[in-house]
Amino acid sequence: MRIIILGPPGSGKGTYSSRLAIKLGIPHISTGDIFREEIKRGSELGNSISNYVSSGKLVPDDVVNMVIEKRLSQEDCREGFILDGYPRTLNQAEFLDGISKIDVVINLNVPKEVIVRRLSSRLICKNCGAIFNKITLPPKVEGICDKCGGELYQREDDKPEIIRRRIELYEKEIAPLLEYYRKKGVILDFYESDGSGREISLDQVIEKMVEALKKYL
User: Fold this and answer.
1) Per-10-residue mean pLDDT for the chain, 217 residues long?
2) What is the Cα–Cα distance from 29 to 68, expressed in whole angstroms?
3) N or C: where does the chain have the smaller number of CB atoms within 10 Å of the terminal CB?
């Protein structure tokens, strides 16, 4: 199954993607993870990406497309994949159509105030980039990454007023992409709650998501 997962900052894209990938037996492909790894390696691509990021610019579509095409050509993607962080633009979506068929686009719908609460409690590993949350996904040892033992920190832009602005910007930017995939009939609008408005556990969310995906198999 070939899946794209979309959602505003703090909607849980990375967490859901990694858990869902394990359930479905397909790779979770995050452009952010790929970029961080290339930067860490000091590769030519990594240096190029670092220059864009440090100057506050977006990595150009042709660079992102090249990275994704190379990753999707690998053997582990033959049975499917979950794309997290790509596509971000119509140009990227059209390029993706040329190299792979997409079965479903999961659009995460999370109330704005839930996102604000989550992000203002978010912790990130300085070493490997793993994400934790003081409320919903705390580390086993306070301030220490479960995965690599690195130091956890809170981003400066994880403040309520900044988070709200980031969500509004995301909604404007993603609208054309959602319209593009709605016309293709592959959008799965996904809501976390159990119908009562209450938040449910991560395991329950994943089970609900797997069930919702069955009609696209």
Assistant:
1) 93 91 95 88 88 83 92 95 94 96 94 86 91 88 95 88 89 94 95 67 89 88
2) 9
3) C
